[in-house]
């Protein structure tokens, strides 16, 4: 079984790699320390499974998992977390597994056996079918549930840090309507005003919560702030946001948008 280990903290990464190397039949083919590096190395090495840290500086592990699925991959994922049991009740170990830090050798062995059974089932299969697409949507829903559970466990609403005239503004995620590329910068729009930032849209995808979705190469939309959806040319849509501004959904992103919105 070829695996990838992702954790931004070297001691935790080294510990997990040490324990995995002691298990017969497990080969570590790649390691990563950030969300962006995970996506790149996954595409390069195509591991059978990923041991994925939930909290990283540039992205949540849940965001990384969702992005891999949107890119057309079906990764077998084990989340690593320091959260106590109550915070991971949303995990369905028949779909994904989790490891609590610090890692324990016996628990890791159980996880590897689960992964092997899961991979055996995948290897039997046929080409992608409607059933598999339904399973992918269900997995996305499960990831959203996990994200919500962890967000509640944090006990606070996330805030986006934006520097303006030497002052660091803290913008609640819930206040953001959408973000859009403006020349070489990204503008974050709220009901009250907008902010020109140094973020990229990819960075914002990693920072913002799961209710945000890339709907266009130049737009990231807050799904909870959509007031109405207008069908447009070539099976695309225009989104009317809660402030009556419009956000386009392009053909590239329309399939994922339809799935997330149940259209």
Counting DSSP E segments of at least 2 residues, the number of strands comes to: 15
Task: Give the helices and strands as they follow along the chain.
Answer: EHEHEHEEHHEEEEEHEEEEEH
Number of domains: 2
From the N-terminal CA to the C-terminal CA, the straight-line distance is 38 Å
What's the main sheet like? Answer: 5 strands, parallel
Strand composition percent:
25-35%
- Write out the CATH superfamily name of the largest domain: Response regulator
Envelope shape: globular
Low-confidence stretches: 152-156
Cα-atom radius of gyration: 19 Å
What is the level-2 CATH architecture name of the largest domain?
3-Layer(aba) Sandwich
The helix content is: 25-40%
**Average pLDDT value?**
81
CATH topology of the largest domain: Rossmann fold
Q: Which class best fits the helix and strand makeup?
A: alpha/beta
Q: What's the CATH class of the largest domain, please?
A: Alpha Beta
Spatial strand sequence of the major β-sheet = 2-1-3-4-5
Short description:
The protein folds into two domains: 2-154, Response regulator (Rossmann fold), CATH 3.40.50; 159-261, OB fold (Dihydrolipoamide Acetyltransferase, E2P) (Beta Barrel), CATH 2.40.50.1020.
Descriptive overview:
- The protein has 263 residues and is of the alpha/beta class.
- It folds into 2 domains: 2-154, Rossmann fold (3-Layer(aba) Sandwich), CATH 3.40.50; 159-261, OB fold (Dihydrolipoamide Acetyltransferase, E2P).
- The protein is built from 7 helices and 15 strands.
- It has a 5-stranded parallel β-sheet, with helices on both faces.
- β14 (237-241) and β15 (246-249) form a beta hairpin.
- α3 (61-70) packs antiparallel against α5 (130-154).
- The longest helix has 25 residues, at 130-154.
- Mean pLDDT is 81; it is low at 152-156.
């Amino acid at each position: 079984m070829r695996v990838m280990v992702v954790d931004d903290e070297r001691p935790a990464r080294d510990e997990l790699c040490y324990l995995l190397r002691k298990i017969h039949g497990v080969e570590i083919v790649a390691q990563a320390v950030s969300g962006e590096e995970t996506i790149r190395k996954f595409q390069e090495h195509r591991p059978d499974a990923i041991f994925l840290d939930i909290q990283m500086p540039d992205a949540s592990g849940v965001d990384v998992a969702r992005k891999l699925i949107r890119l057309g991959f079906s990764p077998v994922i084990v989340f690593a977390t320091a959260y106590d049991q109550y915070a991971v009740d949303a995990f369905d170990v028949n779909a994904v597994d989790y490891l609590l830090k610090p890692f324990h050798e016996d628990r890791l062995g159980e996880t590897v056996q689960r992964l092997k059974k899961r991979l055996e089932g995948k290897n039997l299969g046929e080409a992608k079918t409607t059933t598999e697409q339904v399973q992918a949507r269900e997995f996305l829903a499960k990831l959203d549930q996990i994200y919500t559970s962890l967000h509640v466990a944090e006990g606070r609403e996330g805030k986006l840090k934006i520097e303006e005239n030497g002052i660091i503004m803290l913008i609640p995620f819930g206040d953001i309507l959408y973000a859009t590329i403006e020349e070489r910068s990204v503008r974050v729009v709220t009901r009250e005003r907008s902010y020109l930032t140094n973020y990229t849209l990819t960075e914002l995808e990693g920072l913002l919560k799961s209710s945000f979705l890339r709907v266009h190469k130049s737009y990231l939309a807050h799904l909870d702030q959509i007031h109405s959806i207008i069908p447009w040319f070539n099976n695309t849509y225009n989104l009317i946001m809660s402030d009556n501004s419009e956000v386009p959904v392009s053909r590239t992103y329309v399939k994922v948008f339809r799935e997330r919105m149940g259209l």
